[in-house]
Design brief:
The protein has about 140 residues and is α+β, with helices and mostly antiparallel strands. It has 2 helices and 8 strands.
């Protein structure tokens, strides 16, 4: 069943924080709890991709922060009988909520060099690798 066209345009964030000079990224579980992922969703028609991604981070991961203007990467995947295109941004977290809309999801702060222990999706692995390279180059 095809969905409205805008459902196939999505945005996501890699939530991260820095403590004592070390970067950690936040992963969350999928709805089915069998995969570690990043917050992602449909770009709401009235929101920019960055604002939409920040909204997903709040709803799915219970974190608030500043979304970078630049896209880290894009990827595509099949869903709803079509192809979804996802724009991924970095988001520096400045607030972590104890209660949030989708708090049935687990969340885990991890060292960016260890994400492959958790993440199995090849698209997400490529995106996280790119994030890690950008972080190393920024330091």
């Amino acid at each position: 069943m095809m969905k409205p066209d805008y459902w196939y345009k999505q945005s996501a964030v890699i939530p991260y924080r820095k403590r004592d000079g070390k970067t950690k990224i936040l992963l969350i579980t999928s709805r089915s709890k069998n995969k570690w992922i990043i917050p992602k969703g449909i770009i709401e028609p009235e929101l920019s991709p960055q604002k939409s991604a920040a909204k997903e981070a709040l709803e799915e991961a219970g974190v608030v922060g500043k979304v970078d203007a630049g896209i880290i990467a894009t990827y595509k995947y099949k869903k709803w009988g079509g192809i979804c295109e996802v724009q991924v941004y970095a988001m520096r977290v400045n607030e972590i909520l104890n209660e949030w809309e989708e708090d049935f999801r687990s969340r885990k702060w991890i060292d960016p060099n260890n994400f492959e222990k958790f993440v199995k999706n090849n698209n997400l692995i490529k995106v996280l690798n790119k994030f890690c390279v950008l972080q190393r180059n920024a330091n």
